[in-house]
Target: AMP-dependent synthetase/ligase domain-containing protein
Amino acid sequence: MGILSEAHICQCFSRLATQKRNSLVTINGARQKTGQQLVDSVLSLARGLLQLGLQNGDVVAISAFNSDWYLEWILAVAFIGGIVAPLNYRWSFEEARMAMVTVRPKMLVTDESCYYWHSAARGDAIPSLRWHVSLSSPSLDIINKYNMLTAEMLVEQSVIYGSMNYSFAPEGAVIICFTSGTTGRPKGVVISHTALIVQSLAKVAIVGYTEDDVYLHTAPLCHIGGLSSAMAMLMVGACHAFIPKFEATLALEAIEQHHVTSLITVPAMMADLISSVRLKRIQKGCDSVKKILNGGGGLSDNLIKDATRLFPRAKLLSAYGMTETCSSLTFTTLFEPMLEASGTSLQMLAVTN
Model:
C-alpha cells in the first residue's frame, strides 16, 4: 500500500483521472489519450507486470525512443514499487551490458531501436535478466526471432482483482539514471520519488509550468533533464507531445501542429532550430511557445538573440544541474518578454535591485 505522507510520482493519477479526465494529456502521432485513458493504461500494465512476477524493488531496464508508451512504462513500474533504469539507445550493446551488469535488471524493455540487444543479452551476458519485452508492437516474426513478450500480452493476461495502490521500492528509489559519462564511464545514479517531486516543484515555481501547457519532449527520457521535466508536467496535468528523438524539422512541425507552449533545449538543439528556420525561411507556429528551459551549457549572446527572435513570446531560462542532483540546481532568466514589452530589461531590473 502507498504511504500517503511520502512523495510518489504516481500521486499525479488522482488529478489526471479527475480534473484532466476528458482532456488530452498525451499526443504521440495519431495516438492520443485523455487523463483517464493514461491512468487506465498505466494501471493495466502495472497489473500485468505484477501477475508476470515482477516484485517490489526489481529493476526494469528500458531503452527506446521517446513515446507515450515509454512514459507509461516508467509510471507502471514505479506504481508497483519497481525501479526503472533508462538506458541510452545510442549506446553499443557492450556499453548497455556494462550498465545492466551494474544495476542487475530482471527485465529488459526496448523498441525497434535496440531489438538486437535481446539476442546479445541471452545466456550469461546479463545473468539477472528473466524477461525480454518489446515496448512497441512488432510483427510476429520479430517477436519469435527475439523471443519477446509485448506490452499487449501483459495487459491481455492481467486480471483485475480489487483496487490497487502505489508502493515504494526500498529507500524510495524509483529511477537509476546514468550520467553522460563526460568525466569517465557513465555512472548509475539512484533517484528517489522525493527528489523527482522536489525537482518538479522547483520547475513549476521558477519556469511557471501549468496545466495549460503543451510540452514537447525534445530531450530523451533516458536523460535526467527529460525525465525531470516529464515529471513536472505530469504533476501539473499538462499535455505531453512526443517526437521519437530530437530533429529540428520534426520539432518545428510539432510546435506548429500541437501549439506547443514549452520545451527544453541544449545549445546544440537551439542552434539546430535556428538554422532549420533560416534554411527553410519559415517561422510558423513559434509564437505559441511561452517557456524554454535551456541546460547542458550556456547559450551564447548570439544564440540568445536569435532564440528570442524565433520565439518572441517565450520566457527563456538557463539552468545548471547534474544527474546526481536530479537535474537543475540553479536557474537564470535570459529573456522575459513581459519585461521587454514594458521597456524594463533584465539588466535594468538587476541594477535596480
The chain has a mean pLDDT of 92. The longest strand covers residues 327-335. The chain has 14 helices and 15 strands.
